[in-house]
Amino acid sequence: MSDCGNCRNCGPAPAIEFPSSGPGNAVRQVSVALVGPPNSGKTTLFNRLTGLRQKVANFPGVTVEQHTGEAELPDGRSIRIIDLPGIYSMAPRSEDEQVAHDVLTGKRADTPKPQAILLVLDSTNLGRHLMLAAPILALGVPTLIILNMADDLHGRGGHLDAAELSAQLGAPVALISARQGDGIGQVFDFLAGAMPAPAPRELPVLHDVPKCREWAGRVGNEAKYHAPLPPVWTRRLDSVFLHPIAGPLVFLAVVVGVFQTIFTAAVPLMDGVHWLFDVSGAWLASALPPSIFRSLLIEGVWSGVGSVIVFLPQVLLLFLFLGILEDSGYLARAALIADRTMARVGLQGKSFIPLLSAYACAVPAILATRTIENKRDRTATILIAPFMTCSARLPVYTLIIAAFIPNQMLFGFLNARAASLLALYALGFLVAVATARALKSSILKSGHTSFLLEMPSYRWPTLQSIGLRLYDRSKIFLRRAGTVILLVTVVLWIAAHLPTHNGHAPPIGESFAGMVGHAIEPAIKPLGFNWKIGIGLITSLAARETIIGTMGAIYGMDPASRSQDLQHALRQDLTLGGAIAVLVFFAFTMQCVSTIAVVRRETGGWKWPIAQFAYMGVLAYAGAFLAAHLIR
Amino acid sequence: MLQLSGNNDRPEATLAELRKGDAGVLDRIDLPAEEARRLMELGFLPGARIIAGLSAPGGDPRVFQVDGSEIALRRETALRLKIRPDRKVAKLHKTSRLETASRTR
C-alpha cells in the first residue's frame, strides 16, 4: 500500500457531488458518459438505461459512432447518456479510443465534458478491469464504479465486498447484472444524486502497466475479492466449437443453417407483407378517383416501395442471426477459426468482424474497420467489404433465384435455391479474398500485424438487446425505402410517363425512361440484358434493391398482382444465362451511393472510392459477360 | 524494444512452444513498446502465469488463459513472448483450471 502515497503522478481526489442537484443545472440537461473496457457489458447496460430512447450518429469530423440515449429518472428528470467506445486504458491507440479519451478529458468541442461517469467493469475479471479505475477517477468527475455481471460472479463462486471496495477507491460502487436487471436501481440512484458517496481518496495514476496491475490486485485483495472459478460451460462449449474437427464443422453448419433459414422461414412473413400491400393498394385504388395522382401512387409508389419492403422480414432474420452470434460470444470463436484464412490473404482476424457485418450492410462494416489499428489493413478491409453480400443484394438474389431456380432438393437435404444463394455469398467472398490478396501483396503491403482477440464467456443473448438491434435495422431499412427508393421510383414513374402523346402516357419503350434504356442497350446486350433491365441497372445505382421496384414499375404491374407476376415477366425477358448474369453482376458491382460516400469519408478522398467503383464495375461486367456466354 | 528482465544468454522458451494445458511464467515481451503495452493491459505481464488453451484448427492462433481472461494470439506474436517454465503447474487441463482459481485468491 505504501508507494501509492509516494507516487508523483497522483491525481486529484474526485469530488463526489452530483451536479444536477445544484440549482443552476436545471436548465441544461446533464450528460453522463458510459465508459469501460470492451466486453464489460457496457452496451447491455446502455440499452437497459435508455431502452428505445437512443440514437446513433457519428462524432463530428471523425467516423466513430456516437451512441446517445435518454435515461429517465423516477422523478421524471431525463439524463443524456453517451456510450463511449471501449477502452483498456487512458493511453489511446485507435481512433475509437482517442475519441473516448477526448470526450472524457473535455477536449472535444462538440461534446461537452460529461458531468458524471458510469465506469463499467466486469466483476468476473476485476483484477484486470480495475486498472482502468485509477485514471478514470483521477479525471475528477463524479464516477460510479459499476461492477457488472454479478450473476456470473456469484454463480461461479466468486464474491467481493462492494462497500470495502468503495472505501478503497473513494467512489461509490454498484454490483449489478445488466443482463438480469439486478441492481440497476443503484445506477438510477447515482444518476439522481441520491447515492451516498464515501470519503474521496487519492489514487495513484500509474503509467507503468505492471505497477498499475499490482495496485489493482492490492485494492481487490482489500475488498476481499475472490475471483470466480473459470466458466465451466464456456470451457465445455469451446471444447466443441474450437475442436480441431468439430469446430470447423459447426462453423460450416452455422453458416449453412443461417442461409437456409433466411430462405425458407422468411417466406410466410414475406407473403404476409405482400398481402398487406396488395390489400391496401386495392383499397386505395377503389377509394381514390382515377387521376394522374392515383396512378403515381398505386403504380409508382405502392408497387415500387412495396416490392422492396416485402424483403424486410428477410433482412431482419439476417440481423437476428448476426445479433445472436455476436451477443452469445460465438462470433469471437468464428473470428479465431477464420483467422488463418484471413492471414493467408494478408489480413487478420480483426478484419473478420467488419467483413461479417458487411453481410448485413457495407456502411456499418466500413465504420467498424476503425478497430483495426494498422492503416493498410484497414484500407484493404474497406476496399473488399462491399464484395460481401449485403442485405440490399438479398432481395435481388431472392427474386431472380425464385424466378429461375427450381425449388428442389440437392443431395436430398440442400434446397437448390438455398444452395444458389449460398453460392452467390461464396462468390462474393472468394472475389473479396482474391482482391485482398492482390492488394496486400502489392500497394497495401504491410509488415507485422499483431492479432489480439479476447474470447468472451458464452452468454445467452438478451431479448432486449436483440430487439433493439432489429428495431434499429427496421428503422434504417424503412427510412431508405421511404426516401431514396421512394424518390427513385417517383422519378422513374415520371420518366416512364413522359413525353405524353395526346394527353396519354406513351408506351414505356417510347418514354424518356425507355429512351435511356434503349441508349444503353448496346452496352449491356452482350450480358444478355435488354433495355428494361438497363433502366433497372441505372436506378439501382442509388441502392441495389431499387432494381426490384423499378422492374415492378416497368412491367406495369397491377398493384393487386402477386410477386409471381414479376417473376413471370422476368422469365419472358431473361434466359437462364441472362438471369445468372444479373446475379453475378449484382454480386460484384458497387451499386450503392451510401457505400461510396462512406468510403470517401473513411479514406479521406475520392481516390479509393473511384478506383473501387471502377474495379468492381469492370469485374461485374466481365463476370456477367462470362456467365451469359457460358450458361445457356 | 521493451525489456523487462535481462538474461539474454540462453535461448529462451516462448509461448508458442506451449501445448494445450501447458503453463509458463511470462519473462519478457520482445515487441515494440506500444504493442507490448496493449498485451500487458490484457494481462500479459512479466511474472504472470499463462496457460495454453484451445486453438483454431492447425494450432494457430491459440487461446491463452491469462489473468482471468482468454486471449487469442497468433503464433508470430506468441513467439515474441518469452517464458520460463513453470514447474508448479501440472500438464493436465483439469489441474490448471484449479491453478487459475487458486492463483487469483
Write the layout of secondary structure elements.
The complex is a heterodimer of chains A (632) and B (105).
Chain A: H1 3-6, E1 31-35, H2 42-50, E2 54-58, E3 65-72, E4 78-83, H3 95-104, E5 116-122, H4 126-129, H5 133-137, E6 143-148, H6 150-155, H7 162-169, E7 173-175, H8 184-191, H9 209-222, H10 232-241, H11 246-264, H12 266-287, H13 292-309, H14 312-328, H15 330-344, H16 349-357, H17 362-368, H18 375-384, H19 393-404, E8 409-410, E9 414-415, H20 416-440, E10 452-454, H21 463-497, H22 512-524, H23 531-539, H24 546-554, H25 563-573, H26 576-588, H27 593-603, H28 607-630
Parallel strand pairs in A: 1-4, 1-5, 5-6, 6-7
Antiparallel strand pairs in A: 2-3, 3-4, 8-9
Chain B: E1 13-14, E2 23-29, H1 33-41, E3 49-55, E4 62-66, E5 69-73, H2 75-78, E6 81-85, H3 93-104
Antiparallel strand pairs in B: 1-6, 2-3, 2-6, 3-4, 4-5
Give a structural overview.
The complex is a heterodimer of chains A (632) and B (105). Chain A has helices spanning 3-6, 42-50, 95-104, 126-129, 133-137, 150-155, 162-169, 184-191, 209-222, 232-241, 246-264, 266-287, 292-309, 312-328, 330-344, 349-357, 362-368, 375-384, 393-404, 416-440, 463-497, 512-524, 531-539, 546-554, 563-573, 576-588, 593-603, 607-630, and strands at residues 31-35, 54-58, 65-72, 78-83, 116-122, 143-148, 173-175, 409-410, 414-415, 452-454. Chain A is built from 28 helices and ten strands. Residues 1-27 and 557-563 of chain A have low confidence and may be disordered. Chain A is α/β, with parallel strands linked by helices and 632 residues long. In chain A, helix 14 runs antiparallel to helix 21, helix 17 runs parallel beside helix 27 (593-603) and helix 18 (375-384) runs antiparallel to helix 20 (416-440). Chain A is 56% helix and 7% strand. Chain A has a domain at 3-229: Rossmann fold (3-Layer(aba) Sandwich). The longest helix of chain A is centred in the last third of the chain and has 35 residues, at 463-497. Chain B is α+β, with helices and mostly antiparallel strands and 105 residues long. Chain B has one domain: Ferrous iron transport protein A (FeoA) (SH3 type barrels). Chain B has helices at residues 33-41, 75-78, 93-104, and strands at 13-14, 23-29, 49-55, 62-66, 69-73, 81-85. In chain B, strands 1-6-2-3-4-5 form a six-stranded antiparallel beta sheet. The radius of gyration of chain B is 13 Å and the shape is globular. The model of chain B is unreliable at 89-105 (pLDDT under 50). At the A-B interface, helix 9, helix 10, helix 15 and strand 10 of A face helix 1, strand 3, strand 5 and helix 3 of B. Strand 10 of chain A pairs antiparallel with strand 5 of chain B.
